[in-house]
Amino acid sequence: MPPSDLEKNERSDFVQSAIDDLAARTEGAKMLEVVRLLKIITSAQIKLEPAPGSSDKAPVYHSFASGGYADIFKATMACDDGSTKTVAVKVFRGAHLAATTEDKKELYKNRLRREYEVWGRAEHRNVLRLEGLLVCDILPSPGLVSEYKEHGDLLKFMQLKPTFDRLAMARDIACGLQYLHSQNVVHGDLTPLNILVDVDRATGLYFPLITDFGKSRIHEMNGYTTNMNTTPMAARPPELLAHADPEPATNKGALTFGSDVYSFSLLLLQLITDKVPFKQEGKSLFVLISQITDEENPLRPTPKHYPLLSGSHDFCWPIMQACWKHSPKERITSREVYERLCKGSPSTTLN
After folding, report:
1. How many domains does the chain fold into?
2. Residue 350 placed within a domain
3. Is residue 348 assigned to a domain?
4. How far apart are CA 85 and CA 7, in angstroms?
5. What are the residues facing 91 on neighbouring strands?
6. Does residue 246 have a cis bond before it (omega within 30 degrees)?
7. Boundaries of each Protein kinase domain copy (predicted)?
């Protein structure tokens, strides 16, 4: 049943309250110069894609992808220049506009503020662009809109075994990561699932787009605590693996630029070996966690278990080893990672 006029008004007031809250809880005008003002996208500008077999008279909408706390819907958006493009709409699960408790309403406001404030800072070729905020009666709550990428995430892309420049892909991810760090953004969940793949129509070359800022934070700023227990174990840096249940691992005080660098090194390893990190050792999860977090003799991938797809990528081993230091403070920076990857490929130039 469609919402009544009263419910629509209540939702509208709540959305405006969330937007006002976003502005009020940032650093005022200084922050709003960095973070793009919320662009509200209305239902008139977007047509959600109904589920296959759904009736035109009573369409049903299903997400095409889901994350740890959000669902992603596909839609067509009308652009200002009269053209259209396919977009993805990220809707927070468990943060419903029809929430009856103040706690749940506050949960939605916090998630909107946290992710928009981080994602809205980014303007880079290797970071997925945030288009705006969709307010639509069909969805349970407003959704964050970004352009849809038909090649999907990096994990799915690699599973299809396409021919692509794996080192260039890793280098571009490093370029995007060092840009985020230059903006004081700690991504916090850098895995193949959170890298989308796009193609340059002019050259036909594939390139990555870093996405999903739900676990990100502004470095040395409060208000960005997020439960990290949905992050795959093997992708977590040692400082997060050291958090034992039932004490939930969060990004507050634990995630740093060094944590992102460690996670990137596992991405690099998977790209240049086509093997999932810590799957080749044949150890149980319990043993893996114990050995990875061992400060004296930590378990790390080796050339024996992870042979390179190309001998020309051998220079990457010292880079990865410098990213795997047990202490985040001892790891090289994302800028150093990017520069060293570029030096290993003489034809490239620094961005």
Report:
1. 2
2. no
3. no
4. 30
5. 71
6. yes
7. 58-350
